[in-house]
Design a protein that fits this description.
Elements lengths: L1 H43 L6 H20 L8 H13 L1 H5 L15 H31 L4 H24 L6 H4 L1 H13 L5 H33 L1
Helix pairs in contact: 1-2, 1-5, 2-3, 2-5, 5-6, 6-9
């Protein structure tokens, strides 16, 4: 019991501090790659890829919400926590969605394709890192309040929902805020594809592709995080 209490106390102090440091690093990288984009604007006179800035800003929302949860690990869950969780879940797909922007890499007469490849890859990596870290923090928060198997099931469901949401965003062009601004239209699209998945092979293939990618990546991330935590608290 003492060891368990000590571990809980350690995670209360370690997680917020470590997460804040990680977010600072990712903020620096965000500034660096945003500067690369500004250089591209200046050199080429084109605003191609300007959407990356907006997509990255959206990816930061769930990261900041999860930081709020990290700072309240030992607080009792209240009604506001439920609202914050909905906001986090609604915007989480935006983190991993940045990976799909890699489809825009193509030769242009404006600048070297290698420059564009590095630029888009950088934005994709930042988004992916924000997603993994944010999911990891919420995993810890849930683990403090429910049994391990229940939490694992919840995380699996979150990854599945995120994978499906990436499809909705990339191919059907739905956004996180459409849950509020156009819920009926979103519900119609979602229900038609859930009801007849075999009639929509792209829905199934894209969702499965990202589910495998995100589940495998997160499993590795979670294992590495636990290993580092054990070393830090040994």
């Amino acid at each position: 019991m003492n060891n368990s209490g000590s571990a809980a106390k350690n995670i209360n102090h370690l997680l917020p501090d470590i997460y804040k440091e990680v977010l600072v690093v990712l903020l620096i990288l965000s500034a660096f790659f945003s500067s690369m984009l500004l250089i591209r604007f200046s050199v080429t006179g084109s605003i191609r890829y300007s959407f990356l800035v907006w997509n990255l800003l959206l990816a930061w929302i769930p990261a900041l919400v999860s930081l709020w949860f990290a700072l309240r690990l030992n607080k009792k869950a209240k009604g506001f926590h439920a609202l914050a969780f909905v906001v986090w879940l609604s915007f989480l797909p935006n983190t991993f969605y940045l990976v799909t922007d890699l489809i825009h890499i193509k030769p242009t007469v404006e600048i070297s394709i290698l420059f564009d490849a590095v630029l888009l890859f950088g934005f994709a990596c930042i988004g992916f890192a924000l997603g993994l870290c944010s999911l990891g923090v919420m995993h810890v928060w849930l683990f403090r309040r429910a049994k391990g198997k229940v939490v694992a099931l919840c995380i699996g469901c979150v990854i599945l929902l995120v994978s499906f949401a990436i499809y909705l965003g990339r191919y059907l062009r739905w956004n996180s805020w459409d849950i509020v601004t156009n819920p009926l239209g979103l519900l119609i699209d979602v229900s038609s594809r859930v009801a007849s998945p075999l009639d929509n092979p792209r829905t199934l293939s894209t969702t499965l592709l990202f589910f495998c990618l995100l589940a495998t990546s997160y499993a590795c991330f979670a294992w590495l995080s636990r290993y580092i935590y054990r070393k830090l608290t040994a």
